[in-house]
Amino acid sequence: MTVAFLDGVDGSGKTTLLDRLAHALAPGRAVTALPLWRFLPALATPADFTPWVTSTDATHIAAALLTGQTRRLQTIENLGRDAGNRVVVLVDRGPATVVASARAHLRTGIQTGHHQAIDLADHVGRLRDAVERLAAETACLSIELQVIGSPDQILDRLTAEERADPGYLRYLRALHREFTTFIDRVPAWAGLHRVRLDATQPVDANVSGALNAVRAVLDGRVPG
Questions:
Q1: Which region, left, alpha or beta, applies to residue 211 given φ > 0 means left and ψ of -120 to 50 means alpha?
Q2: Of the given ranges (109-113, 116-120, 178-182), which has the lowest mean pLDDT?
């Protein structure tokens, strides 16, 4: 089994790239991991995310995201025991994206001052342990859709899609800063293979680059 994490800020094209990769791989080769929201107890549907974020203390949000991602990786680890060697598990939002998102919510979310003390370093440490365990058992690849420089191009796109809530845009700018900071740290946790793609390039070009990287890992080569 090979695990391919799709990392990047909102609007960078992660979901589109995942869908295209799933279709490009041989039939039966790709498995899509359960979405992160399925591991957030406060959410029953994806539509519950925005009300939850806008009414919950930011520290609790950050802790829930980190814990949810840890549980998610554990299910992928269990999947690996039954999956064949040529199966590719595609994960929308890898560890680097979730760590950056948790930190961005801390910067921009509600601070009530009434939450119980939460050791976020402990939550990050548990996620790191989960990444290292998974990488020790199977090949893992971080496909990074990077936004070089200012995130304005993505902000303009999201604004055109009527997702221009001021609070969301503040979060997105913070996410861009945090992602830029942490994208170099998280893959280093377990020596993950990395492929860096330019999110502003045509989708076909990024699909080709990601597909070549996945095939290289499947063939036991280091992706270039």
A1: alpha
A2: 116-120
Q: Which CATH superfamily is domain 2-218 in?
A: P-loop containing nucleotide triphosphate hydrolases (3.40.50.300)
Strand partners, 89: 3, 31
pLDDT digits (tens, 9 = 90+) for 39-68: 999 999 999 998 999 999 999 999 999 999
Q: CA-to-CA distance for 76 and 89, rounded, in angstroms? A: 8
Q: In sequence order, what are the residues at sequence separation of 6 or more whose Cβ sits closer than 8 angstroms to the Cβ of residue 35?
A: 46, 92
The type of residue at 81 is R
**161-196 b/e with 16+ CB inside 10 Å = b?**
eeeeeeebbebbbbbbebbbebbeebbebbebbbbe
Per-residue pLDDT at 109: 82
pTM here is 0.89
CB within 8 A of 16, min separation 6: which ones? 203
